[in-house]
Design brief:
This protein is α/β, with parallel strands linked by helices. The chain is built from 21 helices and 20 strands. Strands 13, 14, 15, 16, 17, 18, 19 and 20 form an eight-stranded mixed beta sheet that branches. Strands 4-5-6-7-8-10-12 form a seven-stranded mixed beta sheet, sandwiched between helices. The protein has a three-stranded mixed beta sheet with strand order 1-2-3, with helices on one face.
Amino acid sequence: MQIRIGEGASEEEAHVIGSALAEHTGEEIEVYVGGDDAPAATAEPPEDAEPSAADQPTESPGSETELGPTEREELLREEITDIEQGGPEKYKDRLSEQGKLFVRDRLDLWFDDGFAFEDGKFANFDSDDRLPADGLLTGAAEFEGRTLHAMANDFTVKAGSMAGKGVEKFLRMQQRALKTGRPVLYLMDSSGGRIDQQTGFFANREGIGKYYYNHSMLSGRVPQICVLYGPCIAGAAYTPVFADFTVMVEGMSAMAIASPRMVKMVTGEEIDLQDLGGPQVHAAESGSADLVAEDEEHARELVAQLVTYLPDNADEKPPRADSRPPSRSPAGIDSVVPERPNRGYDMHDLIERVADQGSVLELREQYGPEIVTAFSRIDGRPVGIVANQPAHRAGAIFPDAAEKAAEFIWTCDAYNIPLLYLCDTPGFMAGSGVEKEGILEQGKKMIYATSSATVPKQCVVVRKAYGAGIYAMSGPAYDPESTLALPSGEIAIMGPEAAINAVYRNRLDDIADDDERAAREAELREEYREDIDAHRMASEVVIDDIVPPSELRDELAARFEFYEDIEKSLPDKKHGTIL
């Protein structure tokens, strides 16, 4: 080894420096002074000197030296193993009784080998109370060929409750998702904030309240999907309702603003958790659950299907798939739709003749069932379907159905999913009951969402399109790329019976003979229907075309293909004030 020291050093100083280095390194040292070409001193290492650990030769192919983990690495691995065991064994034993998995086994189910990498594994490592990962796991993973951010509560650590370090991990994950533009998956099983440790994470600028600020910033930017595996109470219950899609699991999931014990304390009401906020409550009554799974495996299957319709973020288009023929023949569409406008039928029978086989995923099926909201594919292209359901209350639009449709339309528009409206409705429901439930408010939101959507929209008047129903269902005035009708289609302020009653009631009452009155009423009804028939609407170019029902699928596929890259803009403003 050659070294060079400052000019002016003596030979003795050079020798001392060389000897010291030779002893330390175990190598021969040549010491040069200043710019001299010849060494001022040369020092050999002592015979018993050994090279330092830093200077040991590294292993090379064919080397006989076997290098491996040091004791330091082995200790680290032991610490990691201990953390990954989660909370006390007695709490892990209870999970199987509840039919659910330990959190890291759940991650293995979702992502084959768990996280690709985990952040904050050592959170609260040095706390006096053993709190592995602070009860909340965050990381990145690959799911069904998609890379995403994910978090999961560990219910064996203080019932999955949230405190300082876990909150910080959660916030970092959300903030990183804003930067990466990748979806976020929340696997929730949390009893809420850790009350005895609330100082430092509850009301802080970067505390638990920031969850919902970040949820709001992520909303419409990247898909947020939440699956509930247990009771999510108070603050924990807001993550599922802020998410774009929420999946609950039968017999496990619940979410509520307060626990049954707290409810009893505040109101005196005695109620169990499932009746307070179980899957049936939120699937059928509140509308907060989009899908309900039978068990953990089914929950994963539902989300695996869901993500196939979604892009990674709002800048991308949803993924295409191979086209598949529908499960039922389009040739049967005309037979499915009854000729009489007031006769019920199941809209699913028509949808299954238009959509690719096996591609229909209905959301919030039990909530507002008068409207069907479903993802599907037509010729391999993801499409959001908004369809009136004549099998439920004649397809009239009730407040819950309008709210559901508005939120679905809004979500499809955020993630660039084209919309197909299948219209067969007598319009918005009337009466004191629906007025108290906010029919005007919810109807306004549905019309606003339809008006503001900039994705390609196709409207099909399947049969009746009466009253403001044609507005909410993206009729001609709402900038659809096409308004089509089947030969059974009708567009009118109201149906024939109501119209005849409103206009001709007094004249009809003046006809004394019952048979004559009935004949005149039938005659007026047919005259009225001629004015509102699809052929009249097509003749006046109110609609674009009347399509043979058996060709509807091909017609829609061609139109969605043609309008795929259409550009539509909204007026320059900050945002609307309606939703």
